[in-house]
């Protein structure tokens, strides 16, 4: 056989496929469960061995309208047969513009009227950094302790939720400074500390940062998640967000609001920042935007984006036609099926179930907090002490939930489990998931 000949190919049997994948896929990727996920159907996933699990992870908040939503998948399939790709530097395509048409009326502030669609949340964060530096003519970026903004190089420099994301990759992007987020853990306070006290302490630390580390005249932007994601599902108090807005206005600093995880209905509003009424200068979105198709967005004011030079933003796959068509369908489903009303109703039921556990006399020492917004809900367990608290409780409870038929994730350096069910989850499936979680918690506590 000549060296240019293509060798014969025979696909390996399915029983050998997982071992082959584990061997050849980079070890830098982690997984919470073995096996190969074969299909999804609404709030459930099915593995090749026939296991059917309730999915309260949604691919970390991505498949927010359930797996293989028929309206979204059909829109993507139809677009595939018309135009798959139209590179953004060559020509516009209709789904890109139709998506802007759908999103413009639901923006958290009418000033947000200039759109750039990219592929992932990390890329969108990096675009926001570029924009802020151009708009202000300044360099430095302030991020939040506990914040997560991605794992690409610039976004990684802003991520402060876990060291695993940047460990061994230094030197990181310069010009990044970290300030306190009003979360009692990070300020050395007790869980019962008022949000007002936490906010005042955090704003004091920010003002000190301006005086000691990065002068306002050198600071381009402050970036914040209105609900910490990887940092523990902690909502930012409206008072704190208003404090950031005031300081940004005073000093000519851009406020970047990262709603990659909290946006697009996850908290019961289209965007979590709506609760405070605070205006973002730049809004970053992704995850649930296209229900599993790779798409992110960076939205700002046309008066400032007009300062960008054509060609300074872009990317080969930016604003892909199929992904944009899927996102248009997502927006239509939100409106036609009244998704936000379902989020609000199911949220009430979820908080009721979780608070019943929190105040159960047998579990009360072990559950520190139930918090979040909408269907972005965290349960924080006591990290030993008290001595009676099981070690690694969050990961043990999550593993037990998987054994019982439900995928669920931990988050942060603390003992936190996060609920990210589909936004159209049914009342029955939410009750089923809550019951699985309750049984898992009781069993882990009993085992000690």
From TrEMBL:
Keyword Transferase applies: yes
Cofactor: pyridoxal 5'-phosphate
InterPro entries in the cross-refs: Aminotrans_3, Aminotrans_3_PPA_site, Class-III_PLP-dep_AT, PyrdxlP-dep_Trfase, PyrdxlP-dep_Trfase_major, PyrdxlP-dep_Trfase_small
Entry keyword rRNA-binding: no
Superkingdom of the organism of origin: Eukaryota
Listed SUPFAM superfamilies: PLP-dependent transferases
An example molecular function term from Gene Ontology annotations: transaminase activity
Pfam assignment, any one: Aminotran_3
Keywords for the protein's UniProt record, in alphabetical order: Aminotransferase, Pyridoxal phosphate, Transferase
Family under the similarity heading: Belongs to the class-III pyridoxal-phosphate-dependent aminotransferase family.
Protein's recorded name: Acetylornithine transaminase
Species in which this protein is naturally found: Laccaria amethystina LaAM-08-1
